[in-house]
């Protein structure tokens, strides 16, 4: 028997309702010299707890004892019930044959209700092993019986399992229906662990239907529920890693999977879950451009899956292993055959990953010059472009583009790339967080590069410009979703500022700060987590970049868009009614030279380094040759807009000899420059001057600027607190902020400006209804940006541009505070006479003294946008 009037049987469902209480009560039963029946149930409860939350070896010891006592009790159903649990534990320990044999005996020994529960457990094992059709067969046999006897808990479990199997087979709608039905049943029970599990499963279903923000929100909810129960859940980590990878957060997924493996090893947990975690880590490492780690993790996963007789999982691990080997530069005929075999096995078992394997086989064949063989595999992969979730359709369009490229059809390449990037556009716009939008763009990098190659071959400079724009700084194409009026988020932001301010004060005083730093990191994780959950509210507007419109708006000026193809710099010069292409140098050389320039400017910020000035100027000349090449004589005398790739945004463009006396502005893309040009200043916006604490000069320019403009708000001292500053900045026509800036390369959206009550971070700016039309940031490194995704930049400047700011002046390197003051005063003199930011900055540089420190300060500042 598995239930009845005896209170001892209440312990069995308690394992997944109140796990700690169930364990304590079962141990108390064993301390009381129980009967064989009661001893069997107590050992059964401890075995279940250890199997799912503790040491699997301990679990097996208790479950075997439970089986023996059940046999002594004379109850065939009691014995069958224990055999079902023991079978699951054996399979999780990698003893697949023994586990299936125990389950078979349990099915044979059990009757009616008990037999249905054992069938459910065998269905679960079939799912773990990747035998999805067998899993569906067993769960379909069990469910009617469980419903008939009114067993709500086990009926809900059966529906949850059936939904999970449907997800593995790509049947998302069927899965969602079963999850919904299961959740209604769980709401009538006290099974808190099972309730957390169904929330986790709904997160996976949301992800499979393409809703990443909902998936992240549900995973956070499930994690909170598990934390209250104190029950580690390794399946949870496996599933969340999958979503993190799809969101472009592969390094985080790798860290989470590796940490979970270490925890599992420490407690002696399930080897089946270890294999799955290794597979997740392998996938994450491959996406994080770490093919050697990916190969190591995938090889370990293949070995474990093979030993566990889990062919479905083993095949998926083999796919990742081949992908990692290709990424590491290996390619051979054997790899083509292996990838094709993997594709066949995945197709046979109904895996949605089958097109990915066919695409892989086609890629390797193309690399080896086997075009006929490549066409065969790519044509199979291309079938997925018409249906399925966004990333599966992306796989199909990538295969179609490769087919066209191999056939020499530029038109076919461009059409496939356009269709594939349209799919990704739609997907990205479901994401509310600018970070996720930026990172998701990496999934379109290959399509964008193929389109650029095709344009270079057959389309001319104008078409190359269009495709360079198609996937450049797309995160700026629409404002980020406004953070919700979430009281918890606002509390976390306030607490974060307070903790950060206390930590900074402690550092200044020389006091230890590890506790404060831990709390600051915790709050950062919570703020980021809540931000990533936001769903996109702004639909894609279908706008396509129009070179004619750009050329018209440039007037007498010109725009230089710098693209990179095959490691070489391509210079697209737009102006005078046409687009011309020139070739620059190697991008790698330009990046190295840009680093040298940055280092030189940092040294020149300090007196006594004047001897470095000729070195820095020489580096500027080399940068000009590499980045502008033969375009320099054609730049003309008018204003110039520079649109660099993401990795070159830190270049101090005013240092380049041909640009030193010009009006130069920088923009992340030509499209964003056009939007800036067409942005109107707010008709009733005021002027805001902010002076933060701790500046070497005390923000000495602010008092002198206070009387320059009418309708001016000055915030300093205790008034320069984040809420007051944000309120004043909202809708301002001009803001000047003199405050310490901190760039966070590890988390760009936590880059900050130091206010009286703590840091003003990018997440705060995103809460503005409209950011100031013009912003001047006079402190160090406020223009630093992080390159993420395909060609995206994240940081303070790029956060402001989609929110209504048309122009920003900021520095990309540390500067000498004393020399900033005259530069800022000269800059505002030009602005008050009607000049643009770029014009005023050009004139302000010219007005500075000619010594090395002042020159370096002038070069460090850049005008962004078009105001």
From TrEMBL:
- Please give the SMART domains that the UniProt record associates with this protein: TPR
Q: Which InterPro entries match?
A: CHAT_dom (IPR024983), TPR-like_helical_dom_sf (IPR011990), TPR_rpt (IPR019734)
Q: Which domain of life is it from?
A: Bacteria
CHAT domain location? 619-865
Could you tell me which Gene3D superfamilies the record lists for this protein? Tetratricopeptide repeat domain
Report the SUPFAM superfamilies cross-referenced here: TPR-like (SSF48452)
Instruction: Note the Pfam families from the entry.
Output: CHAT (PF12770)
Q: What is this protein called?
A: CHAT domain-containing protein
Organism of derivation: Streptomyces ureilyticus
């Amino acid at each position: 028997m598995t239930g009845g009037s005896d209170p001892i049987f209440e312990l069995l469902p308690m394992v997944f309702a109140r796990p700690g209480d169930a364990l304590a009560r079962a141990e108390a039963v064993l301390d009381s010299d129980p009967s064989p029946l009661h001893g069997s149930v107590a050992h059964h409860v401890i075995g279940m707890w250890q199997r799912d939350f503790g040491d699997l070896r301990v679990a097996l010891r208790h479950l075997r004892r439970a089986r023996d006592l059940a046999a002594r009790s004379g109850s065939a159903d009691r014995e069958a019930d224990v055999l079902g649990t023991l079978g699951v534990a054996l399979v999780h320990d990698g003893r697949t044959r023994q586990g299936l044999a125990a389950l078979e005996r349990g099915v044979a020994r059990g009757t009616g209700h008990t037999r249905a529960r054992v069938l459910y457990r065998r269905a679960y094992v079939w799912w773990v092993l990747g035998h999805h059709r067998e899993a569906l067969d067993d769960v379909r046999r069990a469910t009617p019986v469980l419903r008939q006897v009114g067993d709500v808990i086990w009926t809900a479990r059966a529906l949850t399992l059936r939904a999970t199997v449907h997800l593995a087979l790509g049947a998302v709608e069927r899965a969602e229906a079963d999850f919904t039905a299961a959740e209604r049943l769980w709401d009538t029970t006290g099974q808190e662990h099972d309730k957390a599990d169904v929330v986790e499963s709904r997160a996976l279903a949301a992800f499979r239907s393409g809703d990443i923000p909902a998936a992240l929100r549900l995973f956070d909810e499930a994690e909170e529920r598990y934390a209250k129960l104190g029950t580690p859940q390794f399946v949870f980590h496996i599933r969340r890693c999958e979503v993190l990878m799809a969101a472009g957060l592969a390094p985080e997924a790798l860290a989470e999977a590796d940490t979970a493996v270490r925890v599992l090893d420490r407690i002696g947990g399930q080897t089946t879950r270890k294999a799955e975690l290794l597979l997740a880590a392998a996938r994450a490492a491959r996406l994080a451009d770490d093919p050697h780690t990916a190969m190591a993790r995938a090889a370990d996963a293949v070995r474990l899956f093979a030993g566990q007789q889990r062919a479905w999982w083993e095949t998926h691990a083999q796919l990742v292993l081949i992908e990692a080997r290709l990424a590491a530069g290996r390619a051979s005929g054997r790899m083509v055959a292996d990838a094709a075999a993997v594709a066949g096995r995945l197709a046979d078992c109904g895996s949605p990953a089958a097109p990915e394997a066919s695409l892989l086989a086609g890629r390797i064949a193309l690399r080896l010059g086997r075009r006929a063989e490549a066409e065969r595999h790519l044509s199979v992969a291309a079938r997925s472009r018409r249906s399925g979730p966004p990333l599966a359709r992306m796989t199909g369009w990538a295969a179609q583009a490769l087919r066209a490229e191999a056939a020499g059809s530029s038109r076919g390449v461009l059409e496939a790339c356009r269709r594939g990037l349209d799919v990704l556009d739609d997907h990205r716009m479901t994401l509310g967080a600018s970070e996720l939008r930026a990172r998701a763009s990496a999934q379109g990098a290959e399509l964008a590069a193929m389109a650029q190659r095709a344009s270079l071959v057959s389309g001319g400079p104008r078409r190359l410009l269009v495709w360079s724009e198609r996937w450049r700084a797309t995160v700026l194409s629409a404002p980020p979703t406004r953070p919700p009026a979430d009281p918890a988020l606002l509390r976390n932001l306030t607490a974060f500022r307070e903790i950060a301010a206390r930590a900074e004060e402690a550092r200044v005083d020389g006091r230890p700060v590890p506790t404060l730093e831990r709390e600051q990191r915790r709050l950062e994780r919570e703020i980021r987590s809540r931000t990533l959950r936001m769903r996109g509210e702004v639909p894609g507007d279908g706008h396509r970049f129009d070179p004619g419109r750009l050329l018209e708006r440039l007037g007498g000026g010109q725009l230089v868009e710098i693209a990179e193809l095959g490691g070489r710099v391509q210079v697209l010069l737009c102006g005078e009614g046409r687009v011309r292409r020139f070739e620059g140098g190697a991008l790698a050389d330009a990046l190295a030279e840009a680093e040298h320039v940055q280092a030189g400017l940092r040294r020149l910020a300090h007196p006594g380094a004047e001897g470095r000035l000729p070195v820095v100027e020489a580096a500027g000349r080399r940068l000009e040759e590499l980045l502008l090449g033969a375009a320099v004589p054609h730049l003309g005398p008018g204003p110039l807009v520079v649109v660099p790739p993401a990795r070159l945004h830190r270049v101090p463009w005013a240092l380049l000899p041909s640009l030193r006396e010009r009006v130069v502005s920088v923009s992340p893309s030509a499209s964003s420059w056009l939007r800036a040009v067409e942005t109107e200043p707010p008709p009733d916006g005021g002027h805001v001057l902010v002076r933060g604490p701790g500046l070497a000069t005390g923000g000495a320019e602010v008092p002198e600027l206070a009387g320059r403009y009418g309708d001016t708000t000055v915030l300093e001292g205790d008034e320069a607190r984040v809420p007051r500053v944000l309120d004043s900045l909202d809708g301002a026509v001009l803001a000047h902020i003199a405050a310490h800036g901190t760039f966070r390369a590890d988390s760009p959206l936590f880059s900050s400006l130091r206010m009286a009550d703590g840091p003003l971070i990018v997440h705060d700016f995103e809460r503005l209804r409209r950011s100031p039309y013009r912003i001047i940031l006079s402190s160090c490194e406020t223009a630093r940006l992080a390159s993420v995704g395909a060609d995206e930049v994240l940081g303070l400047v790029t956060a402001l541009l989609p929110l209504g700011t048309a122009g920003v002046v900021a520095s990309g390197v540390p500067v000498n505070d004393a020399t900033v003051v005259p530069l800022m005063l000269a800059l505002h003199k030009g602005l008050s006479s009607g000049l643009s930011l770029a014009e005023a900055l050009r004139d302000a540089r010219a007005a500075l003294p000619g010594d090395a420190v002042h020159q370096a300060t002038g070069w460090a500042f850049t005008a962004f946008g078009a105001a």
